[in-house]
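During the no-cost extension, the postdoctoral fellow (Dr. R.K.) reprocessed legacy sequence entries with the updated structure-token encoder. One reprocessed record is reproduced below for audit purposes.
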Amino acid sequence: QVQLVESGGGLVQSGGSLTLSCATSAFTFAYFAMAWLRQAPGKEREGVACISNMREGGITNYTDSVKGRFTIARDDANNMVSLQMTDLKPEDTATYYCVRDWDYECAAEFDFDGQGTQVTVSP
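Re-encoded structure tokens follow.
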């Protein structure tokens, strides 16, 4: 069955950096757009970043609050997607989820997700 396994979360000070990774299996990774969502305590899950498949140009988009600080990338050879996060802020504290978009472009319609990885940014 489809699996998405996140790693790389942790505790970091404000201004620090982390890179999250997502290993996937059991589907044609190169076909699908992939994304990262996050959910802070007491808040709804929100989209952070998305990347289309490479045939569509690997187009990326980001929520405004992370533009210029986060970078999403995909490695089709290894069926992985990553999220490089720099200049982290306390408001970035959340559980981060790797998700599969239902098609090859970022449509914000997701059909599979991982278990999540916790990112905590201290002031």
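The mean pLDDT is 97. The CA atoms of residues 49 and 62 lie 4 Å apart. The remaining legacy entries will be reprocessed before the final report is submitted.
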